[in-house]
């Protein structure tokens, strides 16, 4: 593996860690309705477990409400059951044409719990990024042992990798702070 490949792979993996954090944060319930909350809810459809958005249209008619309109009427009770079994903590309301999910105002305790989860997820993201850095530096040292690059080259590339790491850790921290602010907003 060449040095440019090591650097490129490290950057891609660090970007992947940030993308995973963004995806996880989108599924955290903030008191506002977001279709991303249903990403983890799967429905049994013709013998297969499929994501909710593959069997229904999900819209946000009001800031604290989701409307799920199944493409097949027979899916309505199945979707309703799946929501009740999920960890959302919201009771679905079947209004005949679709299912409505009304999101209540979050309590202060629940907000604080969610902030703790955000902090934990942010730290996991930082750890992932630092692991990528360690892995890239190990690859560089292996190249040095094979006499493909010099010790000075390794130091220069380590500096580049560290700058990359600092950049992505700053992004992770920013994501965490934005999500925390969003959660604490009443």
UniProtKB/TrEMBL annotation:
The alphabetical list of record keywords is:
Coiled coil, Cytoplasm, Protein biosynthesis
Is Ribonucleoprotein there in the keyword field? no
Q: Which residues form a coiled coil?
A: 133-167
Q: Name one GO molecular function term.
A: ribosomal large subunit binding
A Gene Ontology CC term for this entry? cytoplasm
Q: Where is the Ribosome recycling factor domain?
A: 22-184
Primary localisation category: cytoplasm
InterPro entries with a match to the protein in the record: Ribosome_recyc_fac, Ribosome_recyc_fac_dom, RRF_sf
Which terms under GO biological process does the entry name? translational termination
Under the heading Pfam families, the entry gives:
RRF (PF01765)
What is this protein's function? Responsible for the release of ribosomes from messenger RNA at the termination of protein biosynthesis. May increase the efficiency of translation by recycling ribosomes from one round of translation to another.
Recorded family membership? Belongs to the RRF family.
Q: What name appears for this protein in its UniProt entry?
A: Ribosome-recycling factor
Query: Which species expresses this protein natively?
Result: Fimbriimonas ginsengisoli Gsoil 348
